[in-house]
């Protein structure tokens, strides 16, 4: 290979790399709308809610933030199943009527308030709507 051909390849390669950098920079400024699941799912129907006995629950894992749907003696609760400390998935303790974090031993009451452990923020609660004999959690 001649020296002139080698320098020609190096020059063309440099121009090509520079051109790709310019195109990449331009494309990074074009923001496509970010579509999240939340934009489509504003509520979720809780199937079988009427069959729950008091203090039994359903764990709803397939949402962006999993939740517990708990039947109380007077109604229902929908509360986040994600710890506010380190985002661990929580466990509902039916006998104690408490929500436990297995990661750091945190305890929450059924209103979502932290009782023990490192979390200092309450769990998110969700609104519940009854339409006919169906229950919906508003996300």
From TrEMBL:
Residue ranges crossing the lipid bilayer per the database entry: 6-30
GO CC, any one term: membrane
UniProt xrefs under CDD domains: Rieske
A Pfam family per the record: Rieske
Superkingdom: Bacteria
InterPro entries: Rieske_2Fe-2S, Rieske_2Fe-2S_sf, Rieske_Fe-S_prot, Rieske_Fe-S_prot_C
Keywords: 2Fe-2S, Disulfide bond, Iron, Iron-sulfur, Membrane, Metal-binding, Transmembrane, Transmembrane helix
A Gene Ontology molecular function term of the record: 2 iron, 2 sulfur cluster binding
Cofactor(s) annotated in UniProt: [2Fe-2S] cluster
The keyword Hydrolase appears for this protein: no
PROSITE patterns listed in its UniProt record: RIESKE
Domain Rieske: residue ranges: 44-137
Name used for this protein in its record: Rieske (2Fe-2S) protein
């Amino acid at each position: 290979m001649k020296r002139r051909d080698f320098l020609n390849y190096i020059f063309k390669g440099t121009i090509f790399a520079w051109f790709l950098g310019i195109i990449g920079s331009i494309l990074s400024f074009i923001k496509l709308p970010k579509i999240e699941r939340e934009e489509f799912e504003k509520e979720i129907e809780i199937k079988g809610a009427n069959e729950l006995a008091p203090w039994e629950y359903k764990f709803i894992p397939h949402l962006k933030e999993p939740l517990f749907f708990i039947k109380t003696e007077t109604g229902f609760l929908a509360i986040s199943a994600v710890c506010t400390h380190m985002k661990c998935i929580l466990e509902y303790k039916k006998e104690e009527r408490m929500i436990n974090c297995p990661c750091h031993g945190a305890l929450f009451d059924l209103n979502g308030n932290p009782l023990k452990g490192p979390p200092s923020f309450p769990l998110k609660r969700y609104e519940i709507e009854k339409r006919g004999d169906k229950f919906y959690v508003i996300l």
